[in-house]
């Protein structure tokens, strides 16, 4: 009774380990959360990432049903995918020639679960760095501040950073008319 279920994957994409992939990842999860791109995609080639970067658009606030989605949660998910994909490209083998980053978004049991998998790093797992006043190094601090909870797991040489966010309650279907 009341057991937690694993969230259901609503989308997955594997991106080339280039800076342009960061924008593509943001658009990908934004569209998934807004219900515009539900489904699974195995990979995106460099031409698709370039085209997506050229086609980037702002989300029309009219597209967001305020009774279903808290825009802050959407902003938090988009910020965290941006930070984690950028970190994967900057600090792991994903940023090397031929490197890849995988982004997965799942939903269920009142939460979104974002996962970003990289090609592995020789210097360990992502972690929150001590604040020393440097211009960089705040990515995981941002993840820690925005996610309900987060962590890292290893899959062979790969690291997968996961982060969870509250999901809105599902909107009830419209009531059926009652016969007179």
From TrEMBL:
Keywords: ATP-binding, Kinase, Nucleotide-binding, Serine/threonine-protein kinase, Transferase. InterPro entries: Anti-sigma-factor_SerPK, HATPase_C_sf, HATPase_dom. Gene3D superfamilies: Histidine kinase-like ATPase, C-terminal domain (3.30.565.10). CDD domains: HATPase_RsbW-like. Residues 67-163 form the Histidine kinase/HSP90-like ATPase domain. SUPFAM superfamilies: ATPase domain of HSP90 chaperone/DNA topoisomerase II/histidine kinase. It comes from the Bacteria. This is ATP-binding protein. It comes from Actinomadura syzygii.
């Amino acid at each position: 009774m009341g057991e937690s279920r694993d969230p259901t994957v609503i989308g997955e994409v594997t991106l080339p380990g280039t800076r342009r992939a960061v924008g593509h990842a943001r658009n990908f999860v934004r569209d998934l959360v807004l219900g515009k791109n539900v489904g699974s995609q195995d990979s995106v080639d460099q031409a698709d990432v370039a085209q997506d970067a050229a086609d980037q658009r702002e989300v029309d606030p009219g597209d967001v049903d305020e009774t279903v989605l808290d825009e802050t949660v959407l902003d938090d998910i988009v910020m965290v995918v941006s930070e984690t994909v950028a970190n994967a490209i900057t600090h792991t083998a994903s940023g090397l020639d031929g490197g890849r980053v995988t982004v997965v978004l799942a939903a269920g049991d009142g939460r979104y679960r974002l996962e970003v998998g990289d090609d592995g790093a020789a210097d360990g797992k992502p972690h929150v760095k001590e604040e020393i006043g440097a211009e960089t190094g705040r990515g995981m601090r941002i993840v820690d501040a925005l996610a309900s909870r987060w962590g890292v797991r290893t899959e062979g040489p790969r690291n997968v950073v996961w982060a969870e966010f509250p999901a809105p309650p599902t909107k009830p279907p419209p009531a059926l008319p009652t016969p007179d």
